[in-house]
TrEMBL record:
GO terms for molecular function: RNA binding. It comes from Gordonia hirsuta DSM 44140 = NBRC 16056. InterPro entries: ANTAR, CheY-like_superfamily, PAS-like_dom_sf, PAS_fold_3, WH-like_DNA-bd_sf. This is ANTAR domain-containing protein. PROSITE patterns: ANTAR (PS50921). Residues 108-169 form the ANTAR domain. It comes from the Bacteria. SMART domains: ANTAR. The lineage of its organism: Bacteria, Bacillati, Actinomycetota, Actinomycetes, Mycobacteriales.
């Protein structure tokens, strides 16, 4: 399993060392481009890939697919790509997610393993979303600013973003005590009717 990120406007791809390896490269050997990715698609899957990229860029939707990759040694990998859009400066800027190499999933429990990977992805996203929400509330900032702050802290600590967010979410309730007046103010927000 490896991660990717694609920026719509600049047509720029980023991929993890695991996704580079699925294509037969060491991380950093090549710069992933749409053309390079297309060249690694199984010939029978290229038209579908082309249509998917066109649709993704024109409608600014996520990249999710199940297709085959031909690596630099000629080996074929069946992969599933799970994606979601991400925002930058308040605009949908691209698609990010995970590649699952289905060829490494052995035995009769393929569905169970894929489900496990999907659940893992959702759990990882959950702690990131929770950490963003905490920062948004405490610092009165928007979602993009919260994510930029988390990413900066991740780089400063030289830790994976999901690990940093997990620890932040776990430690905040223990280390931060809100005054009763803040809780009462929040009660009013929670219990107030919301306009549609």
């Amino acid at each position: 399993m490896g991660s990717y990120r694609y920026w719509f406007d600049d047509d720029v791809w980023e991929w993890s060392p695991e996704v580079a390896a699925m294509h037969g490269y060491q991380h950093g050997d090549v710069i992933p481009t749409t053309g390079l990715l297309r060249s690694h698609k199984h010939p029978e899957d290229r038209a579908t890939f082309d249509a998917l990229v066109d649709t993704m860029r024109s409608t600014r939707t996520h990249f999710s697919s199940r297709h085959r990759i031909v690596d630099t040694a000629g080996r074929v990998h069946s992969v599933a790509v799970l994606g979601r859009t991400f925002t930058y400066d308040g605009q949908v800027a691209g698609s990010e997610g995970y590649y699952l190499d289905l060829g490494v999933i052995v035995g009769d429990s393929v569905r169970t393993r894929v489900s496990s990977h999907v659940e893992s992805f959702q759990r990882q996203r959950s702690s990131i979303e929770q950490a963003k929400g905490m920062l948004m509330l405490v610092y009165n900032i928007d979602e993009d600013q919260a994510f930029d702050l988390l990413r900066w802290r991740s780089q400063q600590e030289n830790r994976k973003l999901r690990e940093l967010c997990h620890d932040l979410v776990a430690s905040a309730p223990v280390r931060v005590h809100l005054p009763e007046s803040v809780r009462r103010d929040f009660d009013v927000v929670v219990l107030s009717p919301f306009d549609e």
